[in-house]
């Protein structure tokens, strides 16, 4: 009979082999390059001593290409649960030191089991992607494995938050798993993501391209829009995951982690007034307005380098979690274009999935005019914003700071799109179109006949602005809750939010709407 001590010794030896991944040399090489190992990543994500591994002993079942004798610890993926700031999170990290972190049947099964359990426990999923893709030796079983992971990504969408950290290779169809999740964080060091890389592009199109130009983190953050957060390295990525989770509920049946202040401060903030330019044509830096509206240090911008003409992000106002959407007039005058509409619509839909109130700050001259925009489908893209706002049933508070013209007034969550409260600054201009364009149409003959057409147009535009674009006109028609002193913006939003948190809105049952894609 085997001694108990021998059983324990055997267990420890097996555990050590699993923990060693692809071997001490390979782990050391990674660390020497400044990269974390799969286990380092999970250790730094989770609160101390809270990680419980699942399926460390799982073994691949491949037989071809000499795989029978090949040991792949944990089958190349470390899977388990732990706590992040005291809240349960399900996570996995692909281990590149084990056959390139490639995905085979059992590797995929471990991930799928984790996700099924995350749905049961209602815990967010965090995925560290560092893999050379489908394990070639496992053929169609590897493809099937990917399919099963994608399927779970879709089942979990809108049920628990899903966050992907792309921190190594993520090539071909493998990149669809992060794309099906809610947020992608990508590290500048070591990571790339593409459907077809430079070699295939060269072979098929003859064009030579650099890896970073088709798959680098900077490109995806600023150009393709696939990446929501750019991280310098692994520890920066983990910092972003932890911060992001601090704004999110565990699942769709919970409220986000509000920490409401006992009393809402009614103090005026002169600093906001000081940020408003005298000239309505001068752009206003809305990021500085956001800083004054949210609690100190409580703003996490999402998609910062993509479609910079609109800002989206999570924040807290008097402790209440909000999703903020704001036009950024210093970039393309804050006009809405295709990318801005996609960015805002996706963010609003995430907030709606997870019960997060939406605060919208409006300073928008319109949709961006241009042949490229029309041919690219600005109608289809812009419609996503209308669809997203109109279908969002979480509390919605809108503040019109300055311009709100035409369709973009509606696309930035007007009363008609279901805003619960719409406040306007006295500087708000709400009209079918901007004053200059409107008088050019309305008074074309008068301007032409005038002695000084330019001066006449200016005079007519000023009169139009005062009479037709005034917030009091919109308020007199019942479209504005109130016109407020900009110095009271934060307290006004906070009070409205506090009341709206109890909002319940029932819609006619349906399978799902058909958002224009
Ligand atoms: C099996 C693989 C592998 C793969 C790498 N390895 N890719 N094993 N299947 N797809 C193994 C290597 O043989 C090596 O094994 C170990 O992983 C590390 O790989 P290296 O090449 O030594 O590492 P490195 O030099 O850092 O290069 C990394 C790499 C390269 C650039 C990712 O390995 C590579 O190009 N691999 C092929 C990538 C690929 O084409 N994947 C399929 C994508 S298509 P040893 O034994 O030496 O440790 C796809 C379809 C998904 O994934 C479809 C989903 C719908």
TrEMBL record:
Question: Which InterPro entries does the record cross-reference, listed alphabetically?
Answer: AccD/PCCB (IPR051047), AcCoA_carboxyl_beta (IPR034733), ClpP/crotonase-like_dom_sf (IPR029045), COA_CT_C (IPR011763), COA_CT_N (IPR011762)
User: Which cellular component, as a GO term, is one annotated location?
Assistant: acetyl-CoA carboxylase complex
Q: Which key words are in the record?
A: Transferase
Q: Where is the CoA carboxyltransferase C-terminal domain?
A: 267-511
Top-rank taxon: Bacteria
Which PROSITE patterns does the UniProt entry name for this protein? COA_CT_CTER, COA_CT_NTER
List, in alphabetical order, the Gene Ontology terms for molecular function in this entry.
Answer: propionyl-CoA carboxylase activity; transferase activity
Residue ranges occupied by any CoA carboxyltransferase N-terminal domain in the UniProt entry: 3-260
PANTHER family, per database record: PROPIONYL-COA CARBOXYLASE BETA CHAIN, PROPIONYL-COA CARBOXYLASE BETA CHAIN, MITOCHONDRIAL
Q: Please identify the protein, giving its name as recorded.
A: Acetyl-CoA carboxylase, carboxyltransferase component
The species this protein was found in: Rhodoblastus acidophilus (Rhodopseudomonas acidophila)
